[in-house]
Write a structure and sequence with these properties.
rod-shaped; 3 domains; 468 residues; Beta-Lactamase; 17% strand; Heat Shock Protein 90; Helix Hairpins; five-stranded mixed β-sheet; 9 helices
Length: 468
């Protein structure tokens, strides 16, 4: 379940919702507390300032002594009601109560005195009957000395508001959490509906209908790149399947001839007793045919391994000139036997990084083709050069050439130009192997018509050290 995108989205959303809702609840609770306590503090401050102004005014008229005595009995409103939750008291410099509201209990003062303070000092205390009070203490300087005025208001109503707000949050949060969970579940299901449809379409494509494609235009924008990538992948898979089928057909076709020859010779030879010469002749044909079949099978395996990158390509400094010289010496007798002139034009020293044996196989294949598909008295020219940071090896012939329509297909497995079939022996795997070797060395191979008709192959390989 934890690997489900839908599940992770729901969990992430609900986690974010919980954090945001909790943070919002705490913020609102803090703001409510600040506003409520602030309102109480402002009321207390105005009361204390009023009392201080009243006493200063009375002091000017010389009535402060009598007013302090009458102040306790003169309180009106909530300050006159016993235990009303609204209290004040006036203390002398030595901390004695010189006046207080009638709302305070007569037995003992309810407002604790902790010393004088010229700045307003707010504090939450426990008042009569364990009632929570917000108390303000402030000391004032009069002509006769200092007095401290304390005023306190109950916080019962404020705490009741706080409790009610908390209870509302505790009720709303689970409800909102559940509703949000259901909502995000419905939204994710609806959002993933397009993906489910896309999945269903993909599930209908098998090896039997690889030519089908997923609609990539009239779907959601988020799925469009995925659909296009999937279609591209389907095209590659279809191409690979097509090549595989063609490979099997071509391999079967190429192997059918030698196996038929072997079977025919065996059947004919075994029909009656033959002379030693006839047996030897049949066995010679069977041996030659088996050798050709073995060579063909080996080439098929080489192509498959090279294309699958299952062949280990050595990485060593290789002198192209030395390889071409060896290929020239090896192929010279074959060229002379076929009446072909072969020329080697060595230029600059050319070094690449690669596998000496595989590169030799590459150039032998190309030179062998140039000889086989040449004319009597024709030429094969082998040359090498450097172009920027690449080695360029050219093998040109004056042979029968390749039609323009076949240029793009000659590197396909088992492909042979029509007019060459039957005239030249071969399975059509040489150029396919050559291309695989070049690509394994991070190079490219090109083909074009030669200057004197014929064909020109150009192999381009990166140099071993670009700094030199």
């Amino acid at each position: 379940m934890s690997t489900s995108i839908k599940f992770r989205l729901i969990v992430l959303f609900l986690s974010a919702f919980s954090i945001v809702f909790t943070g919002l609840g705490l913020f609102l609770y803090y703001e409510l507390e600040t506003i409520t306590i602030g309102s109480v503090d402002r009321h207390l401050h105005s009361e204390v300032q009023f009392l201080a102004s009243f006493l200063r005014e009375e002091e000017k008229h010389g009535h402060i002594g009598g007013e302090l005595i009458e102040l306790s009995s003169a309180a009106t409103g909530e300050y006159a009601l016993p235990l009303s939750g609204h209290y004040y008291q006036v203390l002398s410099q030595d901390g004695k109560i010189i006046a207080r509201s009638t709302s305070l209990p007569a037995a003992s003062p309810a407002l604790p005195f902790e010393g004088e303070t010229l700045e307003p000092y707010y504090k939450i205390i426990t008042g009569p009957e364990n009632e929570p009070l917000r108390m303000l203490t402030q000391t004032f300087q009069l002509s006769a000395g200092t007095i401290t005025i304390q005023a306190a208001d109950t916080l019962k109503e404020a705490y009741h508001v706080f409790d009610s707000f908390s209870n509302i949050l505790f009720i709303i949060f689970p409800i909102a959490f559940v509703i949000s969970g259901i909502g995000i579940f419905i939204i994710t299901n609806w959002s993933f509906r397009a993906l489910n449809i896309f999945h269903a379409k993909i599930g209908q494509i098998t090896e039997k209908n690889l030519n089908q494609r997923v609609e990539s235009q009239n779907i959601e924008a988020e799925l469009r790149p995925l659909a296009q990538s999937f279609n591209t992948m389907l095209g590659r898979i279809e191409d690979a399947f097509t090549k595989q089928k063609q490979f099997l057909l071509d391999a079967s076709h190429e192997l059918r001839t030698p196996t038929s020859i072997i079977k025919s010779y065996c059947d004919v030879t075994l029909k009656k007793t033959r002379s030693e010469f006839e047996y030897r002749e049949a066995l010679t044909v069977i041996k030659d045919t088996s050798s050709k079949m073995t060579s063909l099978i080996q080439k098929i395996l080489d192509v498959a391994r090279l294309e699958a990158n299952n062949v280990l390509i050595k990485n060593e400094v290789v002198d192209i000139g030395s390889i071409l010289n060896n290929v020239y010496k090896l192929m010279l007798p074959i060229a002379e036997e076929n009446g072909i002139e072969i020329l080697l034009e060595n230029g600059k020293k050319v070094e690449v990084s690669g596998d000496k044996d595989r590169l030799a196989e590459l150039f032998i294949n190309l030179v062998d083709n140039a000889i086989k598909y040449n004319r009597k008295g024709g030429r094969v020219i082998i040359s090498s050069d450097i172009n920027n940071d690449f080695a360029v090896i050219t093998i040109a012939d004056t042979g029968i050439g390749i039609p323009e329509k076949d240029m793009d297909k000659i590197f396909d497995r088992f492909y042979r130009v029509d007019k060459s079939r039957g005239e030249v022996a071969g399975a059509g795997l040489g150029l396919s192997i050559a291309k695989s070797i070049v690509e394994a060395h991070r190079g490219t191979i090109e083909v074009k018509k030669g200057v004197e008709t014929g064909t020109e192959f150009k192999v381009i390989l990166p140099l071993v050290n670009l700094k030199n």
